[in-house]
Amino acid sequence: MRGLDEHRAATLALATPLPTVEVHLLDALGLVLAEDVATPEALPRWDNSAMDGYAVRAADVAAARPDAPVRLRVVADLAAGSDDEPEVTPGAAARIMTGAPVPPGADAVVPVELTATAVTGGAWEPDEGAVLVREPVATGAHVRCAGDDAAAGDTVLRAGALVGPAHVAAAASVGRSTLVVHRRPRVAVVSTGDELVPPGEPLRRGQIPDSNSWLLAAAAREAGADVLRLGPERDDPAALHRLLRALDAGEHGAVDAIVTSGGVSAGAYDVVKAALADEPGVAFVPVAVQPGKPQGLGRLPGGTPVWTLPGNPVSSATSFEVFVRPALLRMRGLVDVERPRVPAVAADSWSTPVGRAQLMPVVRADPGADSGTRPGALASDGADPAAARSGDGRVAVRRATPRGSGSHLVARLAVAQGLAVIPAGVEQVRPGDSLEVFWT
Amino acid sequence: MRGLDEHRAATLALATPLPTVEVHLLDALGLVLAEDVATPEALPRWDNSAMDGYAVRAADVAAARPDAPVRLRVVADLAAGSDDEPEVTPGAAARIMTGAPVPPGADAVVPVELTATAVTGGAWEPDEGAVLVREPVATGAHVRCAGDDAAAGDTVLRAGALVGPAHVAAAASVGRSTLVVHRRPRVAVVSTGDELVPPGEPLRRGQIPDSNSWLLAAAAREAGADVLRLGPERDDPAALHRLLRALDAGEHGAVDAIVTSGGVSAGAYDVVKAALADEPGVAFVPVAVQPGKPQGLGRLPGGTPVWTLPGNPVSSATSFEVFVRPALLRMRGLVDVERPRVPAVAADSWSTPVGRAQLMPVVRADPGADSGTRPGALASDGADPAAARSGDGRVAVRRATPRGSGSHLVARLAVAQGLAVIPAGVEQVRPGDSLEVFWT
C-alpha cells in the first residue's frame, strides 16, 4: 500500500499553476498574484500634511506661546487635491488640509487646534488673512514625507500573494487598475452509482440521494475552483468512459481537473475502475489511510488530471481534503497548499486501523461548542477553535461521530469542525493523547 | 469620547439578519442557514452492506473454517440500487454490493475476501450458484443499521450554521435540493475626496489614486456581501447628499448598507460630515481608538444603515474590520460575528496613544514569515500563524510598518497579517508584552 504522504506527493505532482490572466482589481480578490507589483513613483508622491492646519516655517513659530501667539499671513488655502504651489516665505503660512502637498518653503504643519485667527482680549476672534499660532512645532511635525510608504521602484506586492483587500488597496495606490493573476481552475465533478438519484426526487428501495457530487462541487468551489457538477452517472463503464473522455477533450468546456466519486473498490460493479481500466495514464492504488483506501489518480490522454475518489461520503470528503484540495490550490498558484496542523489533545477514545493513517472528523470538546459552525472554514466564520484549549493552550477534541466512525455517516459529517490526522503507527487513541488537527 | 467596545455595540445594533431566500444547494455555500433541516426518514433508510460480499445468516457460517468452508446457495445478486428483496433462507446467501439493502432473513455480511465460489483441491475455483465461506462472522457484521446516521425526524442541520460542503452534502442526503438561507447583504461603498482619481488615470500635483473604494469593496465582498462600488466622489456636500439619499431610496438597486470613506474629521472640506449634517438619524462621534477616531454612524430616512469611515487608508481598513464587518456578518445571519482574538507576544516596541485603544497592523515575527500571504484570511490560504510561536505556544508578532504606524501607509498595509488590539490603558508596548491579535 502507498503511504498517505506518498500519495499526497503524487497528487501534487499532477498540479501546476494555471496560466495567468489580467483582471480588474476587484476580480483579483481571492486569486493569486502572478506578478510583482512595483510603484512607479514614491509613496506618498509629495511631502503632505498629516493634519488639517497650517503649513509653516518651524523657525517662524519657535517662540509661540498661548499668551504670546505668533501671527502669520495666510497666503493660500490648500485643499486636498489642490495643485497650488504657493511659496511660504518667512512670516507666511498656508492653510492646508490632510493629504495636501506641503508647499515650498514650509517645513512643518501646525494642527488647527493649536491656532486661531485672532485674539481679542482673552477670546479668539476671526482675523481675515492671518493665523495666530499658540505653540511651537518641530521641523517636520505633522508632515508625511514623500517615500515614507515606498520609494519609487519598490516592490509593494509579490507574485504568489493571495490577493486580499489590502493587496487590492496597495495596487490601487500605485495606480494599478488591473492585476495579473493565475486563473481559477475549472473542475468537473462526477458522481457515479446506480443507487443514486438527484436529491429531492422520490426514492424506491435501494436508492439514496446523490450527495457526493454536491459535496465535492461545494468543496471544490470553496477551494477556489469554478465547478461543473455532473451526475449521478449510471454504472455503465462504456458510457462513463465516453463522458470522461469528452470532459478531457473539452467538449463540456475546458476543464483543468476531473474528480469522480464511487466505483473504485474491489466489487463487481466498480464502474470508474472499469471505465478507466484501459487508460494508461491512470492508476488505481490502495493508500494506507482510513477512510479512503481505494484511490485512483492520473491523466487522461488530453492531459486532464483525474482523481477517482471512493464513494462513501466521508471517504469522499476526507479524500478531497487531503488529495484534491492541495492540488487545486497549487493550480491557483499558491505555494503553501497545506492547512496548518494544530497540536490538539484527545478528549475521547477510539481505535485506529493497523498500518494505516486515520483521518478522523472531530469537534471541539468544550460543552458549549456549537456544532453548527465551522471554525476557520471561511474568512467570514466567527467561531473560535481556541475556545476549548487545554491548560497548555492545546485544543481538546472528540470524534464528530461518537457512535462510530463509519464512512457512510454523511449527516454527522456536517457537525465536524476539523480532521485529526492519526499516524499509521498508532492503534488506539486515548483521552489525553496528543493529536494533530486541521480545521476544515 | 466613545469607547471602542461601545461603538462596536452601536454599529451592531444597526444590523439585523436579512430576509431569507430559498436557494439551490450549491448557491447556499457560504450563506447562513435560516431553517433547521430534519431528515424525513432514517439515515440510512435500510440496513445495508458496508462491504462487497455476501449477505448471510450468521448462524449458517458459525462453523466455517478455511479448511472446512461452508457452502451456501446464492439466491440473488444485489447491486447497489437494486430494489430486489430476496428472502435469505437457511443455507442461502445473496451476493451484495456496498450500500445495497440487506435482504430479509440475512443478518450479516461476509466480505468477498473471506469467500470463494468453490474449492478444488487446495485452490479456489468457480462454482456456479454457490459461495464458499471460509470464516464465521458475528451477527450484524458489516451491516450498517438503518438510523445509524440519523433517526427519522432528527435535525441534521441547525439554523445559524454557515453552510459549507459538509452541510450541502447532509442536506442532499436527506433529499433536499434547496435550502432556506439569509440572503447576502448588498453594500454600497463610496469614497470621497477631490484629491482622488481612479487608479490608472494620470495624476497631477496633489492628486492620488483612489484606493479606499477598492479596499472597502474588497473587504465587503470578503465579508460575504455583494458590492456596489462608487466614487471617488467630489467634495460637494449637496451632490454627495443627493447620492446617499438616492442609494437609501433604492435608486441604484436595493442596498442594505452604505459605507463611505473620507470627509469626517474637523477640517474645512469634510464633505461627508457636511452632507449628512442635517440627517437626524446620523451622528458623528469621536471614538477612543487609533487609528480611526472620527466615526459617523446611523440610518438614513429610508432606513439604510450608514457607516462613515475616516479616509486615511489604514483607518478605513481597521474601521471596516472592527465596526462594519461584524455588522455585515450579523446581516448574513451569523450569531458569532467576532474574529477570534488569539494570545500573542510582542517582539517589537512601540508607543500607543493615551486614553485610546490601538489597532496595530502586525506580522508574525519569525524570520521566515512570508509577508505575501495572509494567515486565516481565506479558507484557501495555506499560511500558518502558528509557525512563529513562543515557547508557551503564543505567536510572536511585530509591527507591519516598523518605520512608523502612519495611517497613510497603504502599500505597507498589504504586508499585515493581523491586527493587535492594545487596550486604552496601555501607553507603551515592549518586547515580551502579552497582546491579543486577530488574523485578518
Automatic annotation (TrEMBL), chains A, B:
Spans annotated as Disordered: 366-394
SUPFAM superfamilies membership: MoeA C-terminal domain-like, MoeA N-terminal region -like, Molybdenum cofactor biosynthesis proteins
Superkingdom of origin: Bacteria
Organism of origin: Cellulomonas fulva
Keywords: Magnesium, Metal-binding, Molybdenum, Molybdenum cofactor biosynthesis, Transferase
Family, similarity comment: Belongs to the MoeA family.
PANTHER family, per the entry: GEPHYRIN (PTHR10192:SF5), MOLYBDOPTERIN BIOSYNTHESIS PROTEIN (PTHR10192)
Cofactor(s) listed in the protein's UniProt record: Mg(2+)
Domain MoaB/Mog: 188-330
UniProt-listed SMART domains: MoCF_biosynth (SM00852)
Catalytic activity as recorded in UniProt: adenylyl-molybdopterin + molybdate = Mo-molybdopterin + AMP + H(+)
Top-level enzyme category: transferase
Record-listed E.C. numbers: 2.10.1.1
Function: Catalyzes the insertion of molybdate into adenylated molybdopterin with the concomitant release of AMP.
NCBIfam families per UniProt: Glp_gephyrin, molyb_syn
Listed Low complexity bias regions: 375-394
Metabolic or biological pathway, per its Swiss-Prot or TrEMBL entry: Cofactor biosynthesis; molybdopterin biosynthesis
Protein name as it appears in the record: Molybdopterin molybdenumtransferase
